[in-house]
Design brief:
By secondary structure, the chain is an all-alpha fold. It has one domain (3-123). It is built from five helices and no strands. The chain has helices spanning 3-31, 33-42, 48-67, 72-89, 102-123. Helix 1 (3-31) crosses helix 2 (33-42), helix 1 runs antiparallel to helix 3 and helix 4 packs antiparallel against helix 5 (102-123). The radius of gyration is 16 Å and the shape is globular. The relative contact order is 0.13.
Length: 128
């Protein structure tokens, strides 16, 4: 197997993992709708009752789009923005200095920052 084939396989696997990272949580938000809405409200997400269905549609629809290698640039950039917003509103470790969940939220913030970076890289990938 030559390096070009390995690149294609690595791109397929990486793209699929990123897509699944959004698809599965989007689906889980459907089944845990009221719990997710309560979390969003408690974290001060503006217009949470409107935002949640939009988040679900974006995570499921664009996750599938990335897996299918369709509209990669657009999907990646939109999910990049969504990931940044989730970090700001949900993983706000800076407000939890003495809270036991500080370390967990900091870890999620850093993880989501890496996911956002991966989405930016993916958005530059030419489909050729």
């Amino acid at each position: 197997m030559n390096i070009k084939n390995l690149d294609s396989v690595a791109f397929l696997i990486g793209r699929s993992f990123l897509g699944i990272y959004f698809l599965l949580p989007g689906i889980s938000k459907i089944f845990g709708y009221s719990d997710t809405l309560s979390l969003m409200v408690s974290k001060g997400v503006p217009l949470a009752s409107i935002a949640l269905p939009i988040v679900i549609l974006l995570q499921v629809g664009l996750g599938v789009s990335i897996i299918a290698n369709k509209y990669l640039r657009e999907s990646s950039l939109i999910l990049f923005g969504l990931t940044v917003l989730i970090n700001i509103y949900i993983h706000n470790f800076w407000d939890l200095s003495s809270d036991p969940s500080f370390a967990h939220e900091l870890q999620n913030f850093v993880k989501n920052t890496a996911i956002a970076a991966g989405l930016l890289v993916l958005s530059t990938k030419d489909k050729s």
